[in-house]
Specification:
Length: 236
């Protein structure tokens, strides 16, 4: 993963954070209408998700300071400007998801509309938003001779971010097209996304394997199986 930045005096702004904010804005703009069509209160859900997004960013960016308070006392500016540890991204996501899940449940919409119907309504806009994020970040895979490879030095590499972005965009737009019944969106999103991730994993650099598959491939297999199970239960 490449991490280009924008320098503003002593401050550095990672481009991926700007891409993340833009992708979330697009996803929420689309989701509000999707939630209204699903019979939920789109504005309330989007407001909860925006707050969850801010919480996730704050926990990711500054949560590490709580784990090392002595460093904050010794050098507060350095601690404030320090690059967060990679695992803090997952901590931030977990905090945001927990906040969103609890507040959507507390609002009564989870019970009134149903969790699966809410997920069906959310999936197309979330996939389109993730597609925007992928297209505006940079992640290169194995060397390639294909004409669309991105050159770094004398070598061209697979543009994994473009592959992921296009796959997510196609799946998201297909789910929004209305050709698929709304109650199958979640299942098809997981199945299609899992298959796409599995295919693209072969263009990525080798990673640690468990039982013959990388962590990314195991996630792809699990997503595809859960998607198929969801589709089977919906059709039953």
């Amino acid at each position: 993963m490449l991490d280009p930045i924008i320098q503003l005096g002593p401050f550095t702004i990672p481009v991926y954070l700007l891409a993340l904010a833009a992708s979330f804005f697009i996803a929420m703009w689309l989701m509000r209408r999707d939630m209204d069509r699903a019979g939920a209160n789109g504005k309330q859900i989007v407001d909860i998700l925006w707050t969850a997004f801010v919480i996730a960013i704050l926990v990711y960016r500054f949560g590490g300071m709580l784990l090392n308070p002595l460093e904050v006392l010794r050098s507060p500016f350095q601690a404030f400007m320090a690059v967060p540890a990679p695992y803090m991204a997952w901590v931030g996501i977990l905090a945001g998801v927990m906040y969103a899940g609890w507040n959507i449940y507390k609002s009564g919409q989870w019970q009134a509309v149903g969790w699966l119907r809410l997920l069906n309504g959310m999936m197309p806009s979330l996939l389109v938003g993730l597609a925007v994020y992928q297209l505006f970040t940079a992640d290169l895979g194995k060397p390639t001779q294909l004409p669309w490879g991105i050159e770094v030095g004398q070598t061209a590499y697979h543009p994994l971010h473009v592959y992921r972005g296009l796959a997510l965009l196609v799946i998201g737009l297909a789910l929004r097209s209305g050709k698929l019944q709304p109650e199958f969106r979640f299942g098809w999103a997981l199945f299609g996304g899992g298959v796409a991730v599995m295919i693209m994993s072969f263009a990525a650099f080798p990673d640690v394997k468990w039982a013959g598959l990388t962590g990314e491939q195991w996630i792809a297999v699990a997503a595809s199986l859960v998607g198929l199970l969801t589709l089977w239960r919906q059709r039953a």
